[in-house]
Design goal:
five-stranded mixed sheet, 15% strand, Recombinase domain-containing protein, 20 strands, Rossmann fold, 653 residues, Resolvase-like_N_sf, Hect, E3 ligase catalytic domain fold, SSR_resolvase
Length: 653
């Protein structure tokens, strides 16, 4: 914060000086600044004192002093005290601005602009250590020299600091450690750091859960529920998806420390510095194998898997840049992120037509799809769960033949894996020889970019092949035993019911059982609003590890369902009852009284049935394949911006 103080000193001196602007007293502005909070604040008083002594010795008039003191970088051109100083000069009140050196005010070409501002306002500028006085006709030359000298000093200091930091990193200097490690004392080296025995089970659990396919949010919830601390250097005490991602992407988990991924780049307009990616040659690596939780091969494969799984959720780049870099995907309630428009393939999003609980096609929002009908997400969740529970209850008993089919398929699958395992062994041997050849070639051609790129690609392929071999060898060797249908029904029902209270947990579970749902637009055959009916496949195999790879089991455990995501309107709700009563000779007025509705409602239901009979339909709802011409609320396809575009998850949609 700027510290602005006024001090008055009255003295009498002699000498030939320009007369004060006010004709009586010299108005003097002293500028003092320190760069960081680590500098001694008494330096501000020292700067003011040396400027005051110069005024006492050199000014021929009585003078009044105003002091502006501040703390901040001289490179920052948006500092409040710099604006305050410029306003003071532009006011035309001050005769003299004095500072210990020009760098105390600002740096680079802005310093020359500042001096010229003083010249425009007939304000004398004196910079003591630079030997600069604007009464001297050579002041511009002196200013240029001073500016270059200060910039050179800054650059040299920056290089010394960077050199020291890089060298100390190689010597083991470590500032902070993530969760799972203990730094015993402030100046400890990485050789002094140890793994935290209390946190080790949680670190391994994090890795295990991510390998099983859980999201960062799921792992964060697990850590928060178990009150796992983030570590002594964490500012926030709560785990988030980004915190979990940051931890797992720290290569210290595989016994390697890295530095130099980022560097500071100055914005010349404001003087601010921002973090940008550093060139590859800036990267430093240090081996700390005693801090590894898992081997490098397993770690690298996990990172590739996580990055590939999250790649589709990254925002599309604009001019090669992500407009919202490092923003994690939002968690959502069921059925969000699982429902897709059957017309264009775009995902359905919450907030349809300003209703926060309704879902609408993303393509319709962007004028890429005509299907703009919404549905209530909460009602849809209830109806889908009801249909799922009914399907589970109707799961047929398994026949004895099914277990025989499982055994036959498992033996066939095992034979296929054995063949694949042999091929991987052969491929690993070939890649190992290729890598050895490239190492020898690189020693002869150390500057060859082609050899370096080939080496990196071969090494990556070898790691993937080794991991694939590990995965194949980890599959069970014995035939899995199929549980009874009763056990499956109990397991599935219990799993879903236990997650119903938490909408986010429910969403995670249902994504395993129902990976994708399609929202199809329907409409009553006699007209009216467009409603949504979803179609999806329910697969219970993910609840039973080891069985999902077997086709014979998936066929029994998978069922295709259709669910109406709406409540029927009145004429359809009572249609069957009205038709039945009317067939028995009951009058319309009596039917209306008996059902508690109006007689026109009865007539509308009968007209709907007549329409169904004429069209030879058993289901009153018909699918909508194009925008209804008579529906005034569905008009996005007539907008100038409209251009139908199917969803492309790998490109710009």
């Amino acid at each position: 914060m700027d510290i602005i103080s006024w001090e008055i000193s009255m003295i009498s001196s002699s000498g030939g000086m320009p007369a004060p602007k006010n004709g009586r007293i010299y108005m003097v502005l002293i500028v003092a600044r320190i760069s960081t909070v680590h500098q001694d604040k008494r330096s501000l008083d020292d700067q003011v004192a040396v400027c005051r002594r110069w005024c006492e010795r050199n000014l021929a008039y009585e003078f009044q002093v105003r002091v502006i003191q501040s703390q901040g970088s001289g490179e920052r051109l948006d500092r409040e005290e710099l604006r305050e100083l410029e306003k003071a000069i532009e006011s035309g009140t001050f005769d003299l601005v004095i500072a210990e050196d020009l760098g105390r005010i600002c740096r680079r070409t802005r310093a020359n602009d500042f001096l010229e501002l003083g010249e425009d306002e007939s304000t004398r500028m004196v910079m003591l250590n630079d030997g600069l006085d604007t009464l001297d006709e050579n002041w511009r030359t002196m200013a240029s020299v001073a500016t270059m000298r200060h910039e050179s000093y800054n650059a040299d200091t920056s290089k010394r600091i960077k050199r020291s930091i890089r060298n100390r990193f190689l010597q083991g200097m470590i500032q902070t450690v993530p969760m799972g490690y203990i730094k015993p004392f402030p100046k400890a080296l990485d050789t002094d750091v140890t793994k935290d025995p209390d946190a080790e089970p949680f670190v391994m659990e994090i890795i295990s859960r991510l390998e099983k396919g859980e999201s960062y949010s799921m792992v964060a919830d697990f850590l928060n529920e178990n009150q796992v601390p983030k570590g002594q250097f964490g500012r926030s005490k709560k785990w988030t998806a980004s915190a979990v991602s940051g931890l797992i992407h720290n290569p210290i988990l595989k016994g390697i420390r890295e530095a130099g991924h980022k560097m500071a780049k100055r914005n010349n307009k404001s003087g601010k510095r921002r973090s940008v990616k550093a060139p590859p040659e800036n990267l430093q690596v240090r081996d700390v194998s005693h801090l590894a939780y898992i081997d490098a091969e397993r770690y690298d494969h996990l990172i590739r898997k996580l990055d590939a799984a999250n790649a589709p959720y990254c925002r599309k780049k604009i001019d090669g840049r992500d407009p919202r870099a490092d923003v994690p995907k939002k968690r959502t309630r069921f059925p969000g992120q699982q429902m897709f428009c059957a017309i264009c393939g775009h995902p359905m999003q919450w907030g349809g037509h300003g209703q926060v609980d309704h879902l609408v096609c993303k393509g319709a929002r962007e004028y890429k799809c005509w299907q703009s009908a919404t549905f209530d997400g909460n009602l849809a969740s209830q109806k889908i769960l009801t249909a799922v529970f009914e399907s589970i209850a109707q799961l047929p008993d398994f026949t004895e033949v099914l277990q025989t089919q499982i055994e036959q398929e498992f033996r066939s699958l095992t034979d296929h894996r054995a063949t694949e395992e042999k091929q991987l062994h052969k491929r690993i041997k070939e890649l190992t020889h290729e890598l050895e050849r490239l190492v020898a070639l690189y020693s002869e051609l150390p500057n060859s970019e082609f050899v370096a790129e080939k080496f990196t690609a071969t090494e990556s392929e070898l790691k993937s092949a080794r991991y694939d071999l590990t995965q194949i060898q980890s599959h069970p060797r014995s035939v899995p035993v199929l549980p009874t249908s009763k056990q499956v029904r109990e397991l599935a029902t219990e799993a879903i019911e236990s997650h119903c209270e938490d909408p986010y947990e429910l969403s995670r579970l249902m994504r395993q059982l129902i990976p994708r749902m399609e929202a199809h637009p329907f409409r009553l055959c006699d007209g009216g609003a467009v409603v949504i009916r979803t179609k999806f496949q329910l697969n219970l195999c993910p609840l039973m590890p080891g069985l999902n790879d077997l086709t014979s089991v998936r066929e029994v455990m998978t069922k295709t369902l259709e669910v109406d995501l709406f409540d029927p309107i009145q004429r359809e709700m009572f249609r069957e009852q009205i038709v039945s009563l009317r067939a028995n000779g009951t009058y319309q007025r009596v039917i209306a009284q008996e059902l508690g509705i109006t007689q026109p409602a009865v007539q509308n239901a009968l007209k709907l049935q007549e329409r169904m009979d004429a069209m030879n339909l058993t289901d009153p709802y018909v699918i909508v394949t194009e925008p209804p011409a008579d529906l005034r609320k569905m008009r996005r396809h007539r907008h100038d911006r409209y251009k139908f575009q199917p969803y492309d998850p790998d490109g710009v949609s």
